[in-house]
Amino acid sequence: MISKIIAEDLITKVRKAIDSVEKIVIVTHVGPDGDAMGSTLALWHYLMTIGKEPVVIVPTMFANFLKWLPGADCVLDYENNKAKADELFASAELIFTLDFNTPKRMADMADAVINAPAPKILVDHHLHPADFAKVAISYPEISSTSELIFRLICRLGDFSEINLACAECIYTGMMTDTGGFTYNSNGQEIYIIIAELIKLGIDKDEIYRKVFNTYSADRLRLMGFCLFQKMKIFPDYKTALITLTSKELYQFNFQNGDAEGFVNIPLSIAGVDFSVFMREDTDKIKISLRSQGTFPANKVAAELFNGGGHLNAAGGESFSTLAETVKKFEDALPDYKDFLE
Ligand code: 5GP
Ligand code: MN
């Protein structure tokens, strides 16, 4: 079987916390991605199976390509259900916070969660977890929070309570946070877990198709436009930058999630090890950063864009104009030259 990564005392604390309550709220980060939804819904299915009353609440709605996830139709988004969500936070007996390390990542929902009287249990794989949870299951060496949820359920002695829906959610998070097992994916036990999930009945090829092959024509055209017209290469810095204005997004009928994955594409160019994607959002510039090898995308995100993340996948934001944000980035590129391999 797989090794016991999660410390025994944490398992005991989680067991005790779950056993003594009914009302459990599960939350994740703003703009929930495949791992955020995979991990929260996997935990939701598990808690239902063992007879609890869990609710998943997200700061903002997840993208369409995740709508097929079993249980997705029961998820509450805070933006559109604030009153109900606030009530649920206030009356919760236990709150799980999944796939983020700092309350800031919950955006407008952060205060309601942090001020709720219920104890928090964090399950996450980002570096430097903030000190807000009573129990912190933080393992940055694990490539997805969904994998941690699998490990947690197993260690609670409840492998047999993982049903097909739960297994599908776990697999989706493991797959999306590793780019379909193309980065951060050398952990041998990932593949032991996948084998277990297949035994439970998941169709991994179908999940791949549902997540990666269901885009709109508009999204593909936007991608083509980005690569043809909007991608700037900085050969000296092995860097690529793609930017999109809100006007351009509008021209391509932009929907939430349409730009997902764009930032990864330039890494397939020989001689590009760092790729950045910036797009205008309603009140800020949203920035995604990806790297390969040892180049620290998270360092750049933290130092330039008030963000963070993992070595090879990070994000941040800017409240200047797009032009100013681009200038700041281009001016700073020489400072990171030493980190290139
Ligand atoms: P994405 O580019 O997919 O939005 O984010 C990639 C990773 O960067 C996320 O998994 C998360 O770890 C991190 N990240 C994204 N946006 C932010 C942000 O605004 N602040 C911090 N601290 N991390 C972020
Ligand atoms: Mn994750």
Which molecules are bound besides the chains?
A: guanosine-5'-monophosphate, manganese (II) ion
How much helix, percentage-wise, in residues?
25-40%
In sequence order, what are the helices and strands, one letter per element? HEHEEHEHEEHHHHHEEHEEHEEH
Q: Tell me the CATH topology of the largest domain.
A: inorganic pyrophosphatase (n-terminal core)
Strands of the widest sheet, in order across it, are 3-2-1-4-5-6
Number of structural domains: 2
| CATH H level, superfamily name of the largest domain | inorganic pyrophosphatase (n-terminal core)
General form: globular
Assembly type of the chains comes to single chain
The first-level CATH class of the largest domain is given as: Alpha Beta
Number of helices: 12
Biggest sheet character: 6 strands, parallel
Low-confidence stretches: none
The proportion of strand residues reads: 15-25%
Mean pLDDT: 97
Which CATH architecture of the largest domain would you pick? Alpha-Beta Complex
Structural class: alpha/beta
Distance between the termini: 37 Å
Instruction: Give me the count of strands.
Output: 12
- Radius of gyration equals 20 Å
Written account of the structure:
By secondary structure, the chain is of the alpha/beta class. The chain has 2 domains: 8-212, inorganic pyrophosphatase (n-terminal core) (Alpha-Beta Complex); 217-340, Diaminopimelate Epimerase, Chain A, domain 1, CATH 3.10.310. The chain is 38% helix and 17% strand. It has helices at residues 8-19, 34-49, 82-91, 110-115, 145-155, 164-176, 188-199, 204-212, 217-230, 246-251, 297-305, 322-332; strands at residues 23-27, 53-58, 76-77, 94-98, 120-124, 135-138, 231-234, 239-244, 274-280, 285-291, 308-309, 313-318. The strands form 2 sheets. A 6-stranded parallel β-sheet has the order 3-2-1-4-5-6, sandwiched between helices. It has a 6-stranded mixed β-sheet with strand order 7-8-9-10-12-11. Strand 7 and strand 8 (239-244) form a beta hairpin. The radius of gyration is 20 Å and the shape is globular. The protein starts with 7 loop residues before the first helix and ends in a 9-residue tail after the last helix. The mean pLDDT is 97. The structure holds guanosine-5'-monophosphate and manganese (II) ion. Residues 35, 99, 125, 144-145, 177 line the site of manganese (II) ion. Guanosine-5'-monophosphate (5GP) is lined by residues 33, 126, 288, 307-310, 313-317.
